Amino acid sequence: xxxxxxxxxxxxxxxxxxxxxxxxxxxxxxxxxxxxxxxxxxxxxxxxxxxxxxxxxxxxxxxxxxxxxxxxxxxxxxxxxxxxxxxxxxxxxxxxxxxxxxxxxxxxxxxxxxxxxxxxxxxxxxxxxxxxxxxxxxxxxxxxxxxxxxxxxxxxxxxxxxxxxxxxxxxxxxxxxxxxxxxxxxxxxxxxxxxxxxxxxxxxxxxxxxxxxxxxxxxxxxxxx
Length: 225
Prior knowledge:
Blueprint: H1 2-20, E1 22-30, E2 39-46, E3 49-57, E4 62-69, E5 73-79, E6 82-89, E7 92-98, E8 103-106, H2 109-140, H3 145-173, H4 179-190, H5 198-206, H6 209-212, H7 215-224
Helix pairs in contact: 2-3, 3-4, 3-5
């Protein structure tokens, strides 16, 4: 009898511990029927290699993942072997829509914030593409290439500067979340000259110690500051 009571207590303790942990749920929908049978992965980069966190199969345009969460971190959403979008694994239900034109991730606080950043970044990139398309039209109309490039260079610089300042604001607002280091690393990769960027310098200067100790950030500091 005593053994049964001890066993029941142990099982109850395990149940309580599991119940107290955070849980994540990922609900996905795709309007691309060609994805049926594909496998969706959440992968985290560890020591320069991708580690699978969770996965499932796409059936009838839908997929679902759920599990226990020990910490909040940024992963990448893969369809088979192709990385399609960054993704924050956090408590709650996250909804993923994969369409032929766009992928959106929303439903939890940090994923909503990340989606806003991605949308803003894509909008600026689209604007830059329009400037280059205008440059091409000028060349076709008879302008010398140097003259055509000169006419758009201020617009290009303005768009890049806008992205830089928006990125700086976003990172500073997320110094204490996984999005801060992630977007900082992204900025360092997309800015034409991140090493001399005033925004990057201000981010590092104003950052708390916990942010500066992040592996992404520390690698940049060790290399360039």
